[in-house]
TrEMBL record:
Domain annotation FMN-binding: ranges: 110-200
Protein name according to UniProt: Ion-translocating oxidoreductase complex subunit G
A cellular component term, taken from the record's GO annotations: plasma membrane
Gene (name only): rnfG
Keyword set, alphabetical order: Cell membrane, Electron transport, Flavoprotein, FMN, Membrane, Phosphoprotein, Translocase, Transmembrane, Transmembrane helix, Transport
Matching PANTHER family: ION-TRANSLOCATING OXIDOREDUCTASE COMPLEX SUBUNIT G (PTHR36118:SF1)
GO biological process: electron transport chain
Job of this protein: Part of a membrane-bound complex that couples electron transfer with translocation of ions across the membrane.
Membrane topology note: Single-pass membrane protein
Length: 205
């Protein structure tokens, strides 16, 4: 005759309550940690964004954000098919003087997806610098878009006309030379710059 196993339901309930209490305490600690660190993380992100804006528009000491509603209208005006590619824009000031604009874009036509970037343009329509904020391009190819050899080509180009891409040197006028083996990435970054140029042309009117 088989042995009948008796279940101690009191013990089962006791263990269940212990596990429930442990889970509740862990959840509370996680929530508390998130609450305590959220402000710090947010401030770190804000500081990093400010530093990036100052990197591409060094003359500015303060930045005034263009309202999201206005930016959305600009995106429509320039015929942007993907509104998410225009992320934000700031007016750069030195005291009360407007010294330029920074525009964050995320062109989606990179080789491995979107390339998040920032373009700085002076008040008189000259590109000051660009910086790549996030990218997943191929190491040794498209990832070279983060290197000065490529980025610095955009300096001193006119924001009043389209920047174009050529495959062979020398790139003259308002053209830049593509990264060897990474024409798609080069065109994506240039597209992001051209979005910024169009935003500048409207904001500076």
């Amino acid at each position: 005759m088989a042995n009948i196993v008796k279940i101690d339901w009191k013990e089962v309930i006791r263990l269940g309550l212990i596990l429930l209490a442990i889970s509740a305490v862990a959840a509370c600690l996680l929530a508390l940690t998130n609450y305590v660190t959220a402000g710090t993380i947010e401030q770190m992100n804000a500081d990093a964004n400010t530093a990036a804006r100052q990197e591409v528009l060094a003359e500015a000491t303060d930045f005034e954000q263009v309202p999201a509603e206005e930016l959305a209208k600009i995106g429509t005006e320039i015929g942007l098919e993907k509104p998410e590619e225009l992320m934000e824009a700031y007016i750069g000031k030195n005291g009360s003087e407007v010294v330029g604009y920074t525009v964050k874009t995320a062109p989606s036509n990179g080789y491995a997806g979107s390339v998040e970037m920032l373009t700085g343009i002076s008040a008189d329509g000259v590109i000051q610098a660009i910086t790549i904020l996030k990218q997943n391009e191929t190491p040794g190819l498209g990832a070279k878009s983060t290197e000065p050899e490529f980025k610095d080509q955009f300096k001193e180009k006119s924001a009043l006309e389209e920047v174009t891409v050529v495959k062979t040197a020398p790139a003259t006028g308002n053209a830049i030379q593509a990264i060897t083996g990474a024409t798609i990435t080069s065109k994506a970054v240039t597209y992001g710059v051209n979005i910024a140029n169009q935003v500048y042309q409207i904001l500076s009117k």
